[in-house]
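Take a record:
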Amino acid sequence: MQSSQNELVSIIIPFYNEKNYFEECIESVLNQTYLNYEIIIINDGSDKIFEEKLENLQSKNPEKIKVFNKKNEGVSLARNLGIQKSEGEYIAFLDADDSWLPDKLQHQINIIKKKKIEFIHGSYFVVDESEKFAGKFIAKNLNYEKLIKSCDIGLSTVLIKSDLIKRHVFEKISTKEDYVCWLSIIKEIKVLYGDEKVVTKYRNRKGSLSSNILIKFSNAFKVYNIYENKNLIYSIYYTLGLSIYWIFKTFKIIYVNPDKIQFKYILETREISFENSFMLSALNMASLSNMNLFYLNNKETIFWLDGYCAKYLIKNYKKKPGRMIINEFELPQFIKKIYLCGNESLAQINYLEKKFNKKINFVKVPFFKKLEDIKNYKIDIDDISLVVINISTPKQEVLANQILKNNIGKKIFILCLGGGVSMVCGEEKVVPERIEKMNLEWLWRLRTNTFFRLKRLLSTSFIFFLKLITNYYKKFEFKNFN
């Protein structure tokens, strides 16, 4: 069933100095399949530089975006102001570091109209600051008895009739302000409808108010004692119960709810299809220990079999190092441009130009101390281009995903080759054949940057074997591209 899109949706986004994830947040709204909406951004006393950025954003989308500035008083009053300024029949909430899937509004409005309800909340993916997939929360229908035990509603998944939310605004409390609101609403409409379709990507951030255990515990007590008028004993009882439910909920999010997903791998580069954008990466201990980086990008990811540890997961294992991948790789005739992204190397540029008989466009990439730093880095790539990345795993895969996200609508084919290019062009010594046959490349590589490589080897091997013995990899299915 398709919605007529006659009803205006007001999307309320409180904003305070968000520099890392806000652009993705806004893009996820602008890319919605449901088009009849207004975006109301409440600038809650951000620094001047952010105020100017918001004004610039509004000037580019004046028909869609409204920005209101206020002094810093917290998200509750920011959302309440957004509700006051809204003109829509429905209201949706979105935090500035979360994002929506493209059909979020369309899907939920269809359900609201079909079931004739006033409130819906949906399921969501949980990711961290590095875009690592942490788990999946599945929304359920809630009555008061269920809701009082656990706040199982993701704020950024909610869509609600505007006249209903205007009767139940947010209380001024540092966290759990949404919990107080939902508890108030459920006393009026009795059931809060939960939909199992994932509609939102929720970001779990370290150091945020919502992640501070002491603050959460204190505010949980306030919810029951002050806003629900429970006595001291009941308030302590419910607060402890909420903490226990949170432990079980977290376990389900991480270990029970995630779907089993499929990854493609190739044995030969000629198996690659160039119908859609992709990133080609090595399946080795480093990538396997970081599989949660690939979970939400499995459709764009193709692996080749590199590290010996892949043999634990793939029956027809056939090892192929990165230098062989680039050496065998044949460039399709229709590729217009080639980019080398990462560390500057004249030897690599010369090798690639000679191999592909095309000019190489070099893009120097800064050194990223943390994976989340890559979030703010953008590279504009021309349509129908090949991109070769020569930095280390997992930074190269995060960068590849960032390139794909920043160049939506273009066909871009990315080779995450790390040190493979430096070996094939003679810049770095090739692992001796006898060492490679014994699968002791890691020992050979310890000759240089010993401390750094040893530290990385120990951490990745520990994570890999821990995940292996705990059956973590049962979440994934690896299938040959053919």
Summary: The CA atoms of residues 378 and 406 lie 7 Å apart. The longest strand covers residues 193-203.
